């Protein structure tokens, strides 16, 4: 396994690395060495995640769960449940995935994580908490999402693990941006920059710069925000990172340019992020995912913001985002799409129906009533 890790460090996430991990798994099987097999499988699962291969990740995750459940070790079961659960979420098996993530959290013990001082990557507990936070946000459970994010930071500080801390700070800052809590996003981005500088973490420093630039743009300073965001993205592109992660940076840049009033550039970056022409995908009815639903809403925002706004196209994309989010049970995204549709139909014949849809989505909320997005929805509805 050490050879596989060495090749991954030097050459990246290549098929040769996967082959070597699979050979290590086979050797552990032949020797009946269960303690050696788990870390090899865990590394293989990480490889599939970093290459954006959730189908392969699910297969390895189920093997990890079977192996962990044969051992009397809660830490192993917690990590195995996280691996399988996160891959199932990526495959849109949201209910089963979330059940497994909740099991992983129930079994996670920060004291055990604190003793694992030589862990290279972030703590499984921190990763599970941030993943859960984002999914709960998609489900429209904003208070629960924020609590998970706060808990991730709390655990990262408690276990005194620098990599876990920067991981938590990045994801908490990103969630705050999505929640439209700009003050929290800015504060967490600055904390991330300081923590990354302290440890000389080049990747996390570059991502902090992207987020700091986005926050400046959101606060009305695109003149300084765009160069900072783009400098961070350019630095990130020169570093050895998982191949699929650059798409996430492109999505952040898309959001930044859209906030800065540059919808044409935002559209280019949205297509780059998704890896295909998003407009064509909407027309051809590509299968629904949380990210495609969000992309539809973003695409609507882009068309509504063009120098010559295309209101008809914007409405079509908002409707598609609403339909996809309803199909997946993602109330948080549905609420955003429905709110945009009320704005788009304001003063027109479709306004009453759009308000009814927004009211229906709002009535399903059980928490998060003080969130900026929900406050705006209440103002739209006059409640």
Short description:
The protein is an all-alpha fold and 383 residues long.
Describe the secondary structure blueprint for this structure.
Elements: H1 2-11, H2 15-31, H3 34-50, H4 54-69, H5 74-90, H6 94-107, H7 110-115, H8 124-138, H9 142-159, H10 162-178, H11 182-199, H12 202-218, H13 222-237, H14 246-259, H15 263-274, H16 278-283, H17 290-305, H18 311-328, H19 331-344, H20 351-363, H21 372-381
Shape, per Cα inertia axes: globular
CATH class of the domain at 1-109: Mainly Alpha
- Count of alpha/pi helices: 21
Could you tell me how far the N terminus lies from the C terminus, measured between alpha carbons in angstroms?
A: 59 Å
- CATH overall fold name of the domain at 1-109: Serine Threonine Protein Phosphatase 5, Tetratricopeptide repeat
Biggest beta sheet summary: none
What does this structure look like?
- By secondary structure, the chain is an all-alpha fold.
- Among the domains are: 1-109, Tetratricopeptide repeat domain (Serine Threonine Protein Phosphatase 5, Tetratricopeptide repeat, Alpha Horseshoe); 276-383.
- The protein contains 21 helices and no strands.
- The radius of gyration is 21 Å and the shape is globular.
């Amino acid at each position: 396994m050490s050879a596989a890790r060495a090749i991954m460090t030097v050459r990246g996430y290549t098929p040769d690395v996967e082959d070597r991990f699979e050979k290590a798994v086979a050797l552990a099987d032949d020797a009946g060495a269960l303690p050696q097999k788990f870390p090899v499988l865990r590394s293989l699962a990480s490889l599939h995640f970093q290459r954006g291969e959730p189908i392969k990740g699910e297969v390895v995750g189920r093997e990890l769960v079977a192996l962990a459940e044969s051992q009397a070790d809660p830490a192993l079961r917690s990590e195995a449940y996280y691996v399988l659960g996160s891959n199932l979420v990526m495959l849109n098996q949201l209910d089963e995935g979330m059940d497994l993530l909740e099991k992983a959290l129930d079994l996670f013990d920060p004291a055990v994580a604190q003793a694992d001082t030589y862990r290279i990557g972030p703590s499984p507990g921190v990763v599970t908490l941030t993943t859960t936070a984002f999914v709960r946000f998609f489900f429209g459970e904003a208070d629960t999402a924020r609590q998970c994010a706060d808990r991730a930071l709390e655990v990262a500080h408690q276990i005194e693990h620098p990599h876990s801390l920067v991981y938590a700070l990045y994801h908490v800052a990103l969630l705050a941006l999505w929640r439209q809590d700009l003050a929290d996003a800015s504060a967490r981005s600055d904390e991330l920059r300081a923590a990354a500088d302290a440890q000389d973490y080049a990747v996390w420093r570059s991502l902090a710069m992207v987020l700091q630039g986005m926050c400046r743009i959101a606060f009305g300073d695109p003149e300084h925000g765009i160069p900072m965001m783009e400098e961070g993205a350019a630095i990130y592109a020169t570093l050895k990172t998982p191949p699929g992660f650059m798409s996430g940076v492109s999505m952040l840049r898309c959001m930044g340019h859209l906030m800065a009033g540059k919808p044409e550039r935002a559209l280019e970056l949205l297509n780059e992020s998704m890896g295909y022409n998003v407009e064509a995908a909407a027309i051809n009815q590509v299968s629904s995912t949380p990210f495609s639903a969000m992309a539809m809403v973003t695409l609507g925002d882009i068309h509504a913001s063009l120098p010559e706004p295309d209101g008809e196209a914007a409405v079509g994309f908002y409707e598609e985002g609403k339909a996809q989010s309803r199909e997946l049970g993602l109330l948080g995204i549905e609420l955003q799409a429905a709110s945009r549709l009320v704005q788009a139909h304001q003063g027109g014949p479709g306004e009453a129906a759009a308000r009814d849809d927004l009211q229906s989505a709002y009535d399903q909320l059980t928490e998060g009533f003080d969130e900026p997005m929900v406050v705006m929805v209440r103002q739209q509805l006059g409640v």
